[in-house]
Amino acid sequence: MAFARISKVFLGAALPAMVLSGCAGGKGPELPPASFVSNQAGPSEEYVIGPLDQLTIFVWRNPELGAKVQVRPDGRITTPLIADLPAVGKTPAVLAEDIKASLSKYIENPLVSVIVDNFSGTFSQQVRIVGATEKPASIPYRANMTLLDAMIAVGGLSEYAAGNRARLVRYDKAGGKQKEYAVRINDLIKRGDTKANVLLAPGDVIIIPESMF
Question: Is the pLDDT score of 100 beyond 60?
Fold first, then answer.
């Protein structure tokens, strides 16, 4: 009888610890930590214009043909002499060449440049943070962006977030399927564990569940 009582006490004390241990981390492999060297890497692929991007179009010696425009939700822009020109999915250099080709009907050998002032990016160039954050959002990806950068952008974790059970979903182009990785956001932003900071990729989705207790 004494042994039975001791067993019950032991199990009663151990069970919460086992549950906590099981909830400590997310499922899936972990990504390698971001390093200072990685953050200092060279430029990435050229930016691709997305819906709602703000553009400045400059036409040398013909300023009246230039404009400041926002890419419409349908992916097109309208400038002087050019209507409904597709812009989404193009680099600024490619769009400049398209504008040049259209303006060539009206002026001789136009020189055109396109600058992205404020960018939103296509969905494939955004990082989406959903779930238990202060302000879930889609943010434009930039070269060498880390998990810490993304969490700062959304204001950190909400009060009841289970940050160490968060998951990062990434599309594997080589394998043609999505992969899930465990990320330890609590360790990163509450304990300052730099090993929990990982490099992000365009199109990543970070899912943060709420704590169950």
Answer: yes
Would 22 be classed as within a structural domain? no
Q: What is the pTM of this model?
A: 0.62
The CATH number of the domain holding residue 107 is: 3.30.1950.10
pLDDT score recorded for residue 86: 96
| Structure confidence at residue 3 (pLDDT) | 37
Is 48 inside any structural domain? no
For residues 166 and 90, membership in a common domain is answered with no
The secondary structure of the chain as a DSSP string is -HHHHHHHHHHHHHHHHHHHHHHSS-SS-BPPBP-HHHHT----SPP---TT-EEEEEETT-GGG-EEEE--TTSEEEETTEEEEE-TT--HHHHHHHHHHHHTTTSSS--EEEEEEE----GGGEEEEEESBSS-EEEE--TT-BHHHHHHHTTSB-TTB-GGGEEEEEEETTTTEEEEEEE-HHHHHHS--GGG-BB--TT-EEEEPBP--
